[in-house]
Each structure stands twice: as structure tokens, then as C-alpha cells.
């Protein structure tokens, strides 16, 4: 035990002597949280809208103003000629163009069917789908308004079958993207810090020749491995605490679950990330190689296949099967459940168990390979 403690002191002293690493370890997570928390969002707002009002009536003005008052659309331009529509869509000056026909108010006044034209820029399919959904909702509300006005004026009682949904959103009622992404950033940063730092720190020892010096000392292999990994476990937990605090203070994302349960769930996840860090160190000769391999072998598959940005349910079946072996997938479920739903261990123990099994397999295999290199 004394040997390991001395080795840990040496590792922290070595870290302290490298002032370039300290900002990367403790400041970079906050910067990444801020960038991802503010920039990565699926919310679609400030949709550029161009109005081609061929009717120019009070009724048509009320209709297009309902788009602006919704808070999602900004009316950027008014055009009077339908031939100008192509220009605004081709130049990406508009996400949506709404063409209101000449007989708009006349048809509505006499109770006839009225068609408007809605043209969307579909280059960004996600934004176009969401914009179309907003448009449909506004048109439905406008139709209801017309119906109510007709009922008030005519005095007729309108009785017909209809379905009225009473919608209630659980866990994230404001549908704020940051509340979904910020917990995921914790998993992403923990992966980044532990894999990258572990791989580069071990390779750095090999580059400057100190690893060989350590091998010829009386220190045992397992003591060397424990001494190398424990600092990164401590750094990982400190980063988790920093990011959780920053997420609560900066993005108002409350942690509804137990904080100590969150820290407990980090342990099985660390087995896999530390194992992958050691594996990368065994196949890399330089720190640059270690960094590149960490990014391409670990980080990119983790980001794309874990459900951090893209829904796993939308992926092909073969890719969905592959995601079962990505430990970050289960860690994200745990993090989002703890943050948004405030669940206990009874709801997340199966994800923790799967993550623990995957982590142990990765860690042991990487440990054996690393041990073999030491010998």
C-alpha cells in the first residue's frame, strides 16, 4: 500500500508540474458544457417567414400575424408577386413562404373552402418538419377561431363528434433541449477525460522512457497499473461534480435524483473508459497517435451510437444491435433518468449491471494486453 501511495504522489506531482494540463482537465469541461448546452439544441425558433399576401385584407393580415405572435416565426419580407418566391427560397432568405390567395377573405366570409400555399425550404429536413408542424398547429387554431366566430354570429349550436387531446408533458414540460443534453454532457466528458488522459499519460511515459524505468524498479505490475489509473478516477469524479454544479447553476437543470447514486453509477462506467484508455495506450507509440485513436476508436462511435445526439430507434437494426455494446448508451439512460425523472436504484439497476459487465470485460481484456506490454 505504501508503494501505491508513493506512486500516486508521484503522479499528482507530475500532473502539477505540467501547467498546460490543468486547464484542460478542470476548465475544458465547463467550456464544453457551455458550448454544447447552448449550441446543441433541437429547438427551432426564429423561423424566417416571407408573406405573399395577394388578398391584402384585414382578414389576411390577422391570419399572417398569428404566425408572428406564435413566437416561432419572424416575418422577414412581404412580397406582392408570386414569381418572387423562388428568389427568397433559392437565396435561403426564407425558411417558409406563405401565399395567401386573392379571394381569401371573400371565401371565408361566405363559408367556402379556402386554400393557402405553404412553401418550405426542405434542405434541413428536421427544421422543415418542425416548421411544418408549427404551421399546421397555427392553421388549426385559426380554423377554430373562424368556427367560434361563425357560431357567435349565427347563433347556431354546433354539435358534432370530435376528439380533444388534453396534453401533459412529463419530466421536461417546457421541452427545453438543454435539460436533455446537459446530463448527456456529463457522460461525454467523463469518457473524454478518462480515455484520452489515460491513453496519453501512459504513452507519454513510454515516449520519455520513464515507463521502462518504472518497470525495472521493484514496483509490481498491478501496483503500477493501480497507481496510473487512480488519479484519472479521482479527476473523473471531480469533473463530474464540476459539470453537475455548472449544469444546475448555468442551465437551471435540477438533479431530481440522488447525487450519490449518480456518483455510484460512474464507477461501472469508469471500468470501460479506463480499460479503453489502456487499450489505446498499448497500440499507440506517440501521444498524437493516442489522441487520434481515442477520438476515432472511442469518442466518435460513442457520440454517434450512444443516443447522445441521434435516436437509436431510428438507426438500422444491425447498428441498433451494435449499440448494445456501447457503455455510454446505458450511462446516458441513467444520467437522464436521475436528472429529469428523479428515479431510484430500482429503476436503473439493470443498466448499471449491463454497464458493469461490459466495463469489466473491456477492463480485463485491456488490462491483460497492457500487462503483457509491461512484461
SSE blueprint and pairings:
Blueprint: H1 2-16, H2 21-26, H3 28-39, E1 47-53, H4 58-68, E2 73-79, H5 85-90, E3 96-100, H6 104-109, E4 117-120, H7 125-154, H8 177-208, H9 210-215, H10 221-251, H11 259-283, H12 287-305, H13 317-323, H14 327-341, H15 345-374
Parallel strand pairs: 1-2, 1-3
Antiparallel strand pairs: 3-4
Helix pairs in contact: 1-10, 3-8, 3-10, 8-10, 8-11, 8-12, 8-14, 10-11, 11-12, 11-14, 11-15, 14-15
Mind explaining what this structure looks like?
- It is a single chain.
- With 375 residues, the protein is α/β, with parallel strands linked by helices.
- Helix content is 67%, strand content 6%.
- The chain is built from 15 helices and four strands.
- It has helices spanning 2-16, 21-26, 28-39, 58-68, 85-90, 104-109, 125-154, 177-208, 210-215, 221-251, 259-283, 287-305, 317-323, 327-341, 345-374; strands at 47-53, 73-79, 96-100, 117-120.
- Strands 2-1-3-4 form a four-stranded mixed β-sheet.
- α11 runs antiparallel to α14.
- It starts with a helix and ends with a helix.
Mean pLDDT: 83
Query: What is the C-alpha radius of gyration, as a whole number of Å?
Result: 29 Å
Q: Write down the overall geometry.
A: elongated
For the termini, the CA-CA separation is 22 Å
Order of helices and strands: HHHEHEHEHEHHHHHHHHH
Strand order of the largest sheet: 2-1-3-4
Sheet with the most strands? 4 strands, mixed
| Strand runs, count | 4
Our estimate of the beta-strand percent is 5-15%
Amino acid at each position: 500500500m505504501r508503494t501505491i501511495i508513493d506512486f500516486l504522489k508521484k503522479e499528482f506531482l507530475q500532473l502539477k508540474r505540467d501547467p498546460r494540463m490543468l486547464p484542460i482537465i478542470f476548465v475544458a469541461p465547463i467550456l464544453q458544457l457551455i458550448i454544447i448546452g447552448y449550441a446543441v439544441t433541437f429547438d427551432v425558433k426564429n423561423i424566417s417567414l416571407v408573406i405573399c399576401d395577394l388578398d391584402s385584407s384585414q382578414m389576411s393580415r390577422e391570419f399572417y400575424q398569428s404566425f408572428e405572435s406564435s413566437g416561432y416565426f419572424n416575418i422577414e419580407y412581404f412580397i406582392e408577386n408570386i414569381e418572387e418566391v423562388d428568389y427568397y427560397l433559392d437565396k435561403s432568405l426564407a425558411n417558409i413562404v406563405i401565399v395567401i390567395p386573392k379571394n381569401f377573405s371573400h371565401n371565408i366570409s361566405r363559408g367556402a373552402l379556402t386554400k393557402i400555399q405553404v412553401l418550405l425550404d426542405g434542405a434541413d429536413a428536421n427544421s422543415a418538419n418542425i416548421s411544418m408542424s408549427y404551421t399546421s398547429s397555427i392553421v388549426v387554431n385559426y380554423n377554430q377561431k373562424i368556427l367560434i366566430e361563425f357560431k357567435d354570429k349565427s347563433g347556431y349550436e354546433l354539435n358534432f363528434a370530435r376528439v380533444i387531446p388534453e396534453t401533459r408533458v412529463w419530466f421536461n414540460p417546457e421541452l427545453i433541449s438543454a435539460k436533455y443534453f446537459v446530463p448527456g454532457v456529463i457522460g461525454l466528458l467523463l469518457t473524454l477525460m478518462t480515455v484520452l488522459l489515460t491513453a496519453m499519460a501512459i504513452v507519454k511515459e513510454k515516449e520519455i522512457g520513464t515507463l521502462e524505468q518504472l518497470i525495472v524498479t521493484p514496483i509490481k505490475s498491478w501496483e503500477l497499473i493501480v497507481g496510473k489509473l487512480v488519479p484519472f478516477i479521482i479527476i473523473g469524479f471531480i469533473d463530474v461534480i464540476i459539470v453537475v454544479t455548472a449544469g444546475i447553476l448555468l442551465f437551471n437543470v435540477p438533479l431530481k435524483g440522488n447525487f450519490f447514486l449518480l456518483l455510484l453509477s460512474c464507477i461501472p462506467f469508469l471500468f470501460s473508459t479506463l480499460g479503453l484508455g489502456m487499450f489505446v495506450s498499448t497500440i499507440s507509440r506517440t501521444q498524437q497517435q493516442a489522441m487520434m485513436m481515442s477520438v476515432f476508436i472511442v469518442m466518435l462511435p460513442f457520440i454517434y451510437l450512444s443516443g447522445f445526439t441521434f435516436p437509436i430507434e431510428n438507426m438500422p437494426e444491425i447498428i441498433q444491435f451494435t449499440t448494445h455494446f456501447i457503455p455510454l448508451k446505458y450511462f446516458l439512460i441513467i444520467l437522464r433518468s436521475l436528472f429529469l425523472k428523479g428515479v431510484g436504484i430500482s429503476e436503473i439497476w439493470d443498466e448499471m449491471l449491463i454497464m458493469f459487465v461490459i466495463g469489466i470485460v473491456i477492463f480485463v481484456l485491456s488490462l491483460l494486453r497492457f500487462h503483457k506490454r509491461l512484461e
